[in-house]
Amino acid sequence: LRILYCDAHICVVNKPSGVLSVPGHRRNPSNNDITSSIDNIDQSVVHRLDMATSGIIVYALTKEALSKLHITFRDRVVKKTYHALVEGHLLLPPPPDEDENKIDVDMERDPNNPPYMRIAQPRTKNNKDTTTTRRINHKFLREAPKPSKTTWSILSYEYRDGKPVTRLEMRPHTGRTHQLRVHASQVLGTPIVGDDIYGSGGKNGSYTLCLHAQRLCIHHPISGAAMIFEADAPF
């Protein structure tokens, strides 16, 4: 674990893959355990990364900072950039008048594989209601498809374990569960290397998900100063 920045109000860390953002029921290490030496009883995580995803995550060390950061994340003021390796050499040129490609689709819970996600299915005569039902703690919750937006660009073409991969820069503009993983697999048709849910997982030679929160731009919750944090991808 590497602490990128810490003051009396926030702590920004570079989370390794395989570490929980918050304590869970399973006996996995969590950032809360790892950063327990920080002397502040109000420490709380502001947002989450999947356990398999590495990269930058922010903790609030006071209730005031937590409240203000929650608002900036909710209002999408925060700018997030991810780096990912996807399977194969992606040969999709960018649009002629734009620097980045755009993905703008609705996502929904996959009723066949809860709690995972999928691109929302079109309505048909036999399926007029696209609302899905999922069960949590013996309660059933109905969820309608929600919009998801990502911009992306190709950084480089590479080889990993002798197999072609493409390094992408991905910027989510919404925060759906597994958004980038679903967009890569189901929209681009190229799963993220090491994705054992939406891709081939370890079969492609990697047992670690190659998705990393590389850059985070926020305003300090107390001073209002613009802050940019970066951490190189471990792959």
TrEMBL record:
GO terms for biological process: enzyme-directed rRNA pseudouridine synthesis. Residues 9-186 form the Pseudouridine synthase RsuA/RluA-like domain. One of its GO terms (molecular function) is RNA binding. It holds the Pfam family PseudoU_synth_2. Residues 111-130 are annotated as: Disordered. InterPro entries: PsdUridine_synth_cat_dom_sf, PsdUridine_synth_RsuA/RluA, RluA_PseudoU_synthase. Belongs to the pseudouridine synthase RluA family. This is Pseudouridine synthase.
